[in-house]
Write a structure and sequence with these properties.
Blueprint lengths: L1 H15 L17 E3 L15 E6 L2 E6 L2 H16 L24 E4 L6 E5 L4 H4 L21 H13 L4 E3 L9 H11 L4 E2 L11 H10 L12 H15 L6 E3 L19 H25 L6 E6 L2 H7 L9 E6 L9 H5 L7 E7 L14 H15 L4 E5 L7 H12 L6 H13 L3 H13 L4 E2 L4 H4 L13 E2 L4 E2 L2 E2 L1
Parallel strand pairs: 1-3, 5-6, 5-12, 6-7, 8-9, 9-10, 10-11, 11-12
Antiparallel strand pairs: 2-3, 2-4, 13-14, 15-16
Helix pairs in contact: 1-2, 4-5, 7-8, 11-12, 13-14
């Protein structure tokens, strides 16, 4: 993993050199070299300490970290701070300006471990990425916008950008059937770089309703995607797909129980009774325990990290006390999508010191929220990340960033917020961002960016009630005030 990051560093030197000079990788100390020290932590423990330092020692620069993740962050920080390579250069359409020469007198960068543990990006509703370079391979889903995968070279760009942002986890696709080689190669792109893989919240135990149907079709099986009606079949499919995912070393396993996609919760009643909620909570609890046992069996007990994302039914069940999650599983609270504010579970669930907690947050929401243009803004993003920090929900965070390219401003800020949410400054970040990209036009660019977000209309959040109260993490009893981020179609707000 570190050697692949070193290859990026060598290419970065070439990018900033007018003569495209490349340093060489050698196995002993030479005059004026960059020394990358060996790690103390094993690969399995690298997540425990991501701190690093980049410092001049005599005529050398030394990159030091206890784990390989920290070493990679040191390499990419050197590229950004010393060579001037923007972490999002692959997506911000700006050419790197070569230099006649590069002189480095003194470097002293020392970073403590980030405040947030798992820090990820979710490539979701990736219609622009799948349409680029004619896409990847066929994805066997009867939904037009998911008909092909992202081309592997594009996914490599996504993963490189995630690395340069010093993030350590990727959910590489909306739906990922690892039985399909075209989809598996997306996971391979992430795994080969040493960061963590995880799954969409509808892919509990690595199985979406689409993968379930595909498995049944291949094997000539009739059965419903239901842990109530077909528990043995569900367990068989879970076990099969978990076994496929067990080949990867670094997985954060998504467990839980969801309906088919995001269409409905487990129950079919629009207003479930208390008895239905109680039975649903017990059902999800049984599924969590079964899935976890299957994962531990498939990995020989090596699986260490589990998440359960409280979306739709999970959110309500947890908020109202009908669902219990084991202490070694990270409870992930979600915003409600279109207005990007947390649901009632975030406020109402008592935090327990022995439990781990995290966040799922949308920069985009397909269908009834921002998707093709940025609408969140740094203020709203930071406000919600700071709320998560204040609650102590820092073990995991995933940012739904869709196609990446629309959100390079927010992604850069997101990275800095997660390392140090207390001292993050929106003003300082925007000044840095525009200065790096727009040079002498930085002040004007910053003014236009601020003007853009300031002019997004505000709506009374109750306008979302009819759309959200049945299915999503929206509580009609909560006054969210005036919110931005909505989709207006033909003058009707949806």
């Amino acid at each position: 993993y570190v050697l692949l990051a070193v290859e990026d560093l060598i290419c970065d030197f070439s990018r900033v050199s007018v003569s495209s000079l490349k340093p060489k990788l050698v196995d002993k100390v030479t005059e004026g070299c960059i020394i990358i020290e060996d790690n103390e932590l094993s690969n399995a423990d690298a997540i425990l300490d991501e701190s690093f330092s980049v410092q001049t020692e005599g005529d050398h620069i030394v990159i030091c970290a206890r784990g390989y993740l920290g070493t990679m962050w040191g390499i990419y920080t050197f590229s950004e701070k010393v060579l001037g390579i923007d972490p999002c250069y692959l997506f911000n359409d700006l050419a790197i300006v070569p230099k006649e020469s590069l002189s480095v007198d003194k470097v002293d960068i020392q970073e403590k471990p980030p405040v947030f543990g798992f820090r990820g990006v979710f490539i979701n509703d990736e219609d622009l990425l799948t349409g680029w370079r004619n896409g990847g391979g066929i994805r066997y889903i009867d939904v037009p916008c998911y008909g092909v995968t992202v081309e592997p070279g594009v996914m490599d760009m996504v993963v490189e950008t995630v690395l340069r942002l010093r993030l350590n986890l990727v959910i590489p696709a909306t739906f990922l059937d690892i039985e399909n080689p075209a989809e598996k190669q997306l996971a391979d792109c992430v795994a080969r770089r040493g960061i963590y893989l995880s799954q969409h919240h509808v892919e509990t135990a690595c199985v979406s309703s689409f993968a379930f149907k595909s498995y049944c079709k291949k094997n000539g099986i009739d059965g419903e995607f239901s842990f109530v009606d077909c528990p043995e079949l569900m367990e068989t499919v879970w076990k099969h797909y978990i076994g496929k995912w067990a080949q990867y070393d670094n997985v954060v396993w998504q467990i839980g129980l969801r309906g088919a996609g995001d269409d409905r919760p487990l129950w079919q009643d629009d207003v479930p009774t208390e008895q239905v909620l109680k039975e649903s909570g017990a059902l999800v609890g049984r599924a969590l325990a079964k899935q976890k046992s299957l994962i531990l069996e498939a990995t020989g007990g090596k699986a260490r990290f589990f998440t359960s994302t409280l979306w739709m039914e999970g959110s309500r069940l947890m908020a109202e006390g009908y669902l219990q999650v084991s202490e070694d599983t990270i409870v992930v609270f979600a915003d409600n999508g279109p207005c990007q504010m947390y649901g009632p579970d975030f406020e109402n669930v008592p935090r327990v010191n022995t439990q781990k907690y995290g966040i799922y947050y949308h920069l985009q929401y397909f269908g009834c929220g921002p998707h093709l243009i940025p609408m969140t803004g740094l203020d709203k993003l930071y406000y919600n990340i700071r709320r998560a920090y204040d609650k102590g929900d820092t073990d995991y965070i995933i940012l739904n960033a869709s196609n990446m390219r629309e959100f390079v401003l927010e992604l850069g800020a997101y990275s800095q917020m997660l390392w140090d949410p207390v001292n993050f400054s929106e003003e300082a970040f925007l000044r840095q961002h525009t200065g790096n990209i727009f040079g002498e036009r930085a002040d004007r660019a910053a003014q236009l960016i601020e003007r853009f977000f300031d002019n997004i209309p505000e709506l009374d959040s109750k306008i979302f009630i009819n759309h959200l109260q049945k299915y999503f993490n929206y509580d009609s009893r909560t006054d969210y005030g005036s919110v931005k981020n909505f989709t207006a179609k033909d003058g009707i707000v949806l």
